[in-house]
């Protein structure tokens, strides 16, 4: 498996793959309308406020509060917005054009998407001996329509996916090569970015903790050494992300996560504006079972995980959803079928942790929709993507080796070409053909709900 050789030099198609993905992301970021990305306007309000005031907001600022919801996006972690503000600040030295500055803010997602493809290649290199399987592993993420969409406008989801791949890659590197300072720092950055980005991705923090202790205890006979290294990781994570939660605890009177402060903001907004913001928790209107089925929560979440654009109104044709779901199902079945061959590569402890990173965002999203705000969106569970890449790619890799080792590259290339073709027709063609995304109703691959 992987050695110390750089991924870019070891895999001749790695750089073209990253650059190609980046071109797709940049084209979309340049072309997409300002209303194309869900919640992007609310996040850009935070970005522009930081640029104007050279400080971080508390969340209670009147100009940041969306009157429809009664709160702002400055209460919960917003590292992508902070980085976006830096890009906007730099671009604003040369131009005041709103569309150009919006593109500057979107660069955070563009670079995060490209970074995810790079880290996915690194991760695949640690899992597979065959280069074709490594490309396929990265391609499952890179050419998922929703991934491309998320990599093209300002959001927290794509940065959360990047941090998840970083954590998985770091744990595999620690397992294979030992936990040196470089690997511990890499893991700490992954955890820190995850902590400052999205609560839906927090399962990967637990994955990092369990993964570190499981792998380091197998390598170290001295338990004190294990805990010493764990302490170093904790200190590095605290240095990266601790400031944010300390700040929250101070300004929100002990509310480190910001959820209670966000709810307080809604109440204050209702009293001040005499407006009842949108608040539709399912528990007040329907049973949980009805929300999942009759409320189309499961179906909408599945479809928007694969690809749903604009304000959750522009969808793929049903056959594309069926194609992706069938492909995922078949590949996972191959993984189950060849599980006996993968136990050394993916031990039971790693398998259970990967399953947990898939279950947590789904359960958390269901809980959030049922108790806080009904939002069945696939982007909320996008942090499960690394685990999906593992299960689908390992299954295909084992199947192709069982048929013919020379079949691996050909099968991987064919699958990647299919993914690129679907991506082009479902995302790029409609977006680049029209001046704004919600014109895609004219393309047969789309329909408007």
| Overall morphology | globular
Number of strands: 3
The count of helical stretches stands at 19
The level of helicity is 55-70%
Q: How can the largest sheet be summarized?
A: 3 strands, antiparallel
Q: Gap between N and C termini, in Å?
A: 46 Å
Q: Helices and strands: which structural class? A: mainly alpha
Nearest-angstrom radius of gyration? Answer: 22 Å
Uncertain segments of ≥5 residues (pLDDT<50)? Answer: 432-449
Average predicted local confidence, pLDDT: 84
- Order of neighbouring strands in the sheet with most strands: 1-2-3
Strand content: under 5%
What tags apply to this protein structure?
single chain, 449 residues, mainly alpha, three-stranded antiparallel sheet, 19 helices, 3 strands
Topology of helices and strands:
Elements: H1 7-10, H2 14-31, H3 40-53, H4 79-92, H5 98-127, H6 131-142, H7 145-150, H8 157-177, H9 181-195, H10 203-219, H11 223-251, H12 259-273, H13 288-292, H14 297-307, E1 308-309, E2 314-316, H15 318-337, H16 339-342, H17 348-371, H18 385-403, H19 407-433, E3 446-448
Antiparallel strand pairs: 1-2, 2-3
Helix pairs in contact: 2-5, 3-4, 4-5, 5-6, 5-8, 6-18, 6-19, 8-9, 8-10, 9-11, 10-17, 15-18, 17-18, 18-19
What does this structure look like?
The chain contains 19 helices and three strands. It has about 450 residues and is mostly helical. The protein has a three-stranded antiparallel beta sheet with strand order 1-2-3. α3 (about 40-55) crosses α4 (about 80-90), α6 (about 130-140) packs antiparallel against α18 (about 385-405) and α8 (about 155-175) packs parallel to α10. It is globular.
